[in-house]
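Input (structure):
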């Protein structure tokens, strides 16, 4: 459990919250626990998935948090999903109650951590997302991941985090997802293939060829290709897919799409014998292939 510069030792993070909700604000609370629960937290025995918080009789109560029984706890262990009181000022609890009642917000635990030896819970005031919100968020996340990947391949370090953590991230704090630069960036030709070249077709690799391509050191041979899709010329960019339709790599075709069908399933010796020496070459050479 590493400690950050704010003195926090993270125990657990509820990663599904930001997919299901907009987090309007977050606040730090204490949480009432027994000794065996604290020991279990130190061992990482907690799950925040499907947890939430309510206000019952003026008390802020966390529900659905699963804290695994401590192995040596015996009779001192409690129900793993028992309700647990959160410690906050009365005025803060009243304000949260008004937000729940008037604006329909939901209280959801975001994270658990140790701070100065005490267990703290970060509680989010959240608004549920509609389906179109989730789709937009997923598209936005994919765009950010692609930008970070391009930066990494170009030798530029990047951090994917929320705007509130941008300052600490630039100072080197461990907040967000860090994308380290790839030291061996390869040639500008490979960068162009990976990020600029438009694919005009697809070569579908069988299981063995797909595994070889994933290894990153093999050319794509005709013997391992089961199907060719689209129309393209030699030198055009093409996708290399597995039989399930997943993109494995992008590369430059060594032959026209009209030539390839007669080559499929044949090894190098067969290609030389039946089609001639000029066909005894990879469909995509490994020097012209970039994993995706």
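Output (sequence):
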């Amino acid at each position: 459990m590493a400690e950050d510069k704010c003195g926090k030792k993270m125990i657990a993070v509820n990663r599904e919250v930001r997919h299901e909700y907009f987090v309007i604000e977050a606040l730090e609370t204490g949480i009432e626990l027994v000794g065996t629960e604290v020991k279990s937290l130190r061992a990482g025995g907690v799950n925040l998935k499907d947890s939430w918080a309510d206000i019952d009789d003026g008390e802020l109560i966390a529900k659905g948090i699963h804290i695994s029984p401590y192995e040596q706890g015996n009779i001192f262990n409690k129900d793993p999903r028992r309700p647990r009181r959160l410690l906050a000022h009365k005025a803060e609890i009243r304000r949260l109650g008004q937000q729940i009642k008037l604006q329909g917000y939901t209280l959801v635990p975001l994270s658990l951590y140790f701070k100065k030896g005490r267990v703290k819970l970060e509680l989010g005031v959240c608004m549920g997302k509609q389906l179109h919100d989730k789709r937009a968020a997923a598209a936005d996340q994919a765009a950010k991941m692609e930008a970070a990947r391009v930066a990494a391949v170009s030798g530029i370090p990047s951090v994917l985090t929320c705007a509130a953590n941008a300052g600490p991230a630039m100072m080197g704090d461990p907040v967000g997802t860090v994308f380290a630069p790839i030291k061996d960036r390869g040639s500008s030709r490979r960068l162009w293939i990976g990020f600029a070249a438009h694919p005009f077709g697809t070569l579908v690799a069988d299981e063995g060829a797909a595994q070889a391509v994933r290894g990153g050191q093999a050319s794509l041979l005709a013997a391992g290709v089961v199907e060719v899709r689209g129309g393209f010329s030699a030198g055009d960019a093409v996708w290399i897919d597995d039989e399930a339709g997943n993109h494995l790599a992008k590369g430059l075709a060594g032959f026209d799409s009209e030539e390839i069908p007669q080559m499929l399933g044949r090894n190098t010796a067969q290609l030389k014998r039946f089609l001639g020496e000029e066909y005894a070459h990879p469909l995509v050479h490994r020097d012209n292939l970039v994993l995706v």
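Notes: The chain has eight helices and 16 strands. The radius of gyration is 27 Å.
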